[in-house]
Amino acid sequence: MKKTAVALAVLGLGLSAAHAEDVIKIGHVGPLTGNIAHLGKDNENGARMAVDEYNAKGVKIGGKAVKFELIGEDDAADPKTGTTVAQRLVDAGVKGVVGHLNSGTTIPASRIYDQAGIPVITPSATNPKLTQQGYKAVFRTIANDVQQGAVIGKYSAQKLGKKVAIIDDRTAYGQGLADEVDKGVKAGGGTVVAREFTNNQATDFMAILTKIKATNPDVIVYSGMDAQGGPMLKQVKQLGITAKWITGDGGCTGEIIKLAGDAIGPNDYCTQAGLPLEQMPGGKDFKERFKKKFGADVQIYAPYAYDAAAALIEAMKKANSSDPAKYLPALKASNFKGVTGVVAFDDKGDIKAGSITVYQYENGAWKALKN
């Protein structure tokens, strides 16, 4: 009996080891705590849905059936925490990473992944510096801020008013986007009458808004996230500022509408990198599957996170290997129909077909405009 038990135990260990070898870990990082946790969870859910759907279909790599496992980490939108959890994922043996949400966390974390030779694809970090660092395995499934900032700036100057005030949250995302907006305003024939900044934890914007009011702007551009954008809109209205207001993708959410309450109206605009969900090739079906699986609506970036996870898995399938060094060439050569459109990267790792959509607030929701 003892010999049989030992044999069975050894056999069991062997089976467990074999099973462990068939599990391919994919990391995801985003803020799961803090004031933009809803966006981090949205990203994670998008990546998780891709992993679960590939597992349900069944994937073989190297002649063996494999199971993908999503390892989620919380960076709290903090750069230092971002590098800490990046190293944790490397130590956990992930074969690829979807993330991070913010440019301010993705840029420093990308060095960790590069040193480990692990590909990382962000669905939402839009600062152009990310893909200008020369790292070979950094990718992005969404348009960058050079494109978005130019659209916001030109649209503001040409459609909303010539005198433009710009506020940013001093993060890598916010300041980087604001710099591109500044260029876009001038390229569109407008004038930047004020540039002010806050931080991504602030709730009181009265001082900078009072300064801006004195310049009598036609438009206020806010470059930051929805957690600050909503309260800021309330304070804009409290001060009696009549300027139109526009923000980028970080504030182009349903959450900002909730936070702004009665302060939001038809003079308020936002932009998103990419097409509206309903216009994405796989958007309608994705929206329904997402709602059914998570009982929640898509915030912004979940489709891009889904495509990022899909890109990693498709590259592994094409290379017939989960070894990052072996599947990286296939990842660079990606060309498949994703939820958001064709997923294909340029030589820097940016998505090739990046587009920007302008929205206007109407009847309780953001409505896409033809621009």
TrEMBL record:
Identify the keywords attached in UniProt to this record, alphabetized. Answer: Amino-acid transport, Signal, Transport
The segment(s) forming the Leucine-binding protein domain are: 24-364
Mind telling me which residue stretches traverse the membrane in this protein? none
- Is Transport found in the keyword set? yes
- Which stretch is the leader sequence? 1-20
GO BP terms in the entry: amino acid transport
Q: Cite the Gene3D superfamilies for this sequence.
A: 3.40.50.2300
Superkingdom per UniProt = Bacteria
Indicate the family of this protein. Answer: Belongs to the leucine-binding protein family.
Q: What is this protein called?
A: Branched-chain amino acid transport system substrate-binding protein
Q: Which organism is it from?
A: Niveibacterium umoris
